[in-house]
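Table 4 source record.
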Amino acid sequence: MEGIFFRGTTVTLLGLSCLACVRTRLAGAPRELTHERLTAATVALDGEVHRLATCWSGDREYFLGVDLADENQGTFLRLAIDPMDGPRLRLTRGSGASAERLHFDASACRELRAEIEPTGWRVNHVRDFKGELKADCTHANGTHMVAHVAFSHCH
């Protein structure tokens, strides 16, 4: 009898643990996409548009900001807020040793505006953030990047 009670309790506890789960998503990236919503969660590199679909809080790696990734997890955009210099971006394309990493700060951008604020929620001691990013930047190598992102529940 104790074994049945224990198994039932375990299953119940596992089921209850998922009640607190929140699916992380970018604002503007619902199931049905319209052109208007798509522009709120994209990064364009030399005209090639990547739809951003997921985000993670910078708290996971001890920085104020977020990490954003496209649907295929092949393009990553890190938005970090430097307390002295303001927003900075790191764009990573590809993976492993062949990954290309480009860094952008205000000096490389015609427009670089970012807002990040905690929502008041915490998930496993990681703060949840909402905010937005608008950037129009050109790297020293000539790569042009335009980003329009609004995010919520990024943890």
